[in-house]
Amino acid sequence: MKEAVAHVSDTGFWTSPMREVDTATADQTLLVIVITDDIDPAWISLDKTIRLANRPVCWCETSITKAVAAIPPGFAHPSAPIEGQHWPLGIPKVLTGGESNLPPGRTITVVTDGHYRTLGVIVGIPEDQELVRLIEEAEETRGWLRQHRREPDQLVKKLAERSRQRLPRIWQLQLDQQVAALGTTPLEQVADAISQNERFTKQVQIRFGQVADQVQHTYKQHIEQRFGMTPETDFRRLVALEQHSATRMPWMTTLLPFMAGADLRNVYLDLAETVWDQRAMPIQMQGKDPLGDWLTQFGDQGPFALHIPPPYLRNRTELQLAKVSDIAQRRGFGWQDLDEALGNGPIRETNLRELATWLYRSKKRPLDLQRPSQTRYLFFRSSTDSAYPIRDGEPPGRSITMIRQVQK
């Protein structure tokens, strides 16, 4: 294995993202999926100033290659060897103001079965024998999935028992609270978690958000006590710390029982945006332009708006919007008034891939969605006009005035 896997891009181990696994071997296959904030080469290739030759596939290629090389020969099922995939979710320059965004790298390593059901997760780079242990535990989790295929709650409790043995007391209490909440959750019971995978995934996705919201509060307390820092004031330092798997290990160990079995293709954005606390770029959809197709029905002259949802966990909690004075609200310049003004014309929710595809094909100027504060809406006087960003950190009064004037 050490000789066979010389680089992450080695086709002997690494395959294309989200490929369909042969149905004859899917039940036995294990996929090692490395999710990073690297930019997809499809976007990089649009920048003629960058040479793609000899570029690393991902920022942590050397470390990941070392972890993969530690997998013993013959470790995998003979008829279904372990396969690797790299899912790049980084944001291209067309959405970062035309500038390269070079924060400390982010990575999440996930092990799934051949149907992409989540079996194990590590936030950060697997160290030493961690990837081997993750694969061993994934095999155990897969066995429990099959055993409790008609009892998803029992699966959660069994996984929670394993997790509890590895957690400090404060995390044990958090895990116990979430397991106890299973008995009171209104979620519909799933008859068959394996054969009805799509339905099962939908339920797990809901449960993932509820649990992640609670567990995130414990994590913030944890890093403040352990490292004397907060995500808001020490973001870059925290990102560097989270490259080490031990930093978020209690968080992930607590969360795993509630997302095991979920189709990673449906929840990977939720997971990445929760861990990274920033938007991530969906993969696939190359060659398609759904946003451009939507705009064709309005012609080139009419105003329209695009809504870009905040990162997953922020979308579930109180919105971090600029404060609006009582006087401004009485005069119709509050955030609700903004929503109503935008609703008077065509408006569409979009994701980063749709937006980037349309901007590139329309040859529009790059936008910076993050600075100086997060962009929530983009308003266009017409499809040929430049975007007017409406940001969370700016009171909406000026935007409302401009939108109403355009809509007259």
Description:
This protein has 408 residues and is an alpha/beta fold. The chain contains 15 helices and nine strands. The strands form two sheets. Strands 1-3-2-4-5 form a five-stranded mixed beta sheet, sandwiched between helices. Strands 7-6-8-9 form a four-stranded mixed beta sheet, with no helix packed on it. A hairpin with a 4-residue loop joins strand 4 (107-113) and strand 5 (118-123).
Number of helices: 15
Chain-averaged pLDDT: 84
Distance between the termini: 67 Å
The main sheet orders its strands as 1-3-2-4-5
Q: How many DSSP-defined strands?
A: 9
Uncertain runs with pLDDT below 50, 5 residues or more? 1-11, 186-195
Main β-sheet, in a few words? 5 strands, mixed
Q: What is the general shape?
A: globular
Strand content: 5-15%
Order of helices and strands: EEHHEEEHHHHHHHHEHHHEHEEH
Assembly state of the chains shown = single chain
What is the rounded Rg?
23 Å
Structure classification:
alpha/beta
Give helix % range: 40-55%
Output the keywords.
alpha/beta; 408 residues; 5-stranded mixed β-sheet
Please sum up the structure shown.
This protein is α/β, with parallel strands linked by helices.
List strands and helices in order, with pairings.
Blueprint: E1 14-15, E2 30-36, H1 41-44, H2 61-69, E3 83-88, E4 107-113, E5 118-123, H3 130-147, H4 152-164, H5 169-181, H6 197-227, H7 235-241, H8 245-255, H9 264-276, H10 290-296, E6 304-307, H11 312-316, H12 326-330, H13 335-343, E7 347-349, H14 352-362, E8 375-380, E9 388-391, H15 397-407
Parallel strand pairs: 1-3, 2-3, 6-7
Antiparallel strand pairs: 2-4, 4-5, 6-8, 8-9
Helix pairs in contact: 3-4, 4-5, 5-6, 5-8, 6-8, 6-9, 13-15
